[in-house]
Amino acid sequence: MTLTLESACEMHPQVALRPEPFGALAYHYGNRRLVFLRHPDMVKVVSTIGQHSSIRDALHATGVDQARWPAFISALSSLTTSEIIRVR
User: Fold this and answer.
1) Which of helix, strand or coil describes residue 66?
2) What is the CATH number of the domain that holds 14?
3) Which of 24, 54, 84, 88 has an alpha carbon 20 to 30 Å from 3's alpha carbon atom?
4) Residue 24 DSSP class
């Protein structure tokens, strides 16, 4: 699924994040997928995305530089495929 800055998302309720030195491991207990989040900024966005009305608001609130937003949209879109996050 392709997300936009206006998409409202949340972390899937069956996902747990485990902090690691490189970022975090995201494990989905339902489909048993393990995903590496390789940057602390991505961990912040994924863990708080449900608290914001859009991806744009989440990126702004977590202090991600606007020049990096397209890369984050791409990464978040791939996380919907793994069911780590979902559209609300």
Assistant:
1) helix
2) 3.90.930
3) 24
4) E
- 12: CB partners within 8 A, 6+ apart: 28, 30, 83, 84, 85, 86
d(CA 8, CA 55): 6
pTM reported for the whole predicted model: 0.91
Alpha-carbon gap, residue 82 to 69, rounded angstroms = 20
CB 67 within 8 A of CB 21: no
Distance (Å, whole) CA 6 – CA 16:
25
The answer to whether position 34 is within a domain reads yes
pLDDT for 37-81, tens place per residue?
A: 999 999 999 999 999 999 999 999 999 999 999 999 999 999 999
Q: How many residues comprise the chain? A: 88
Domain count, the chain: 1
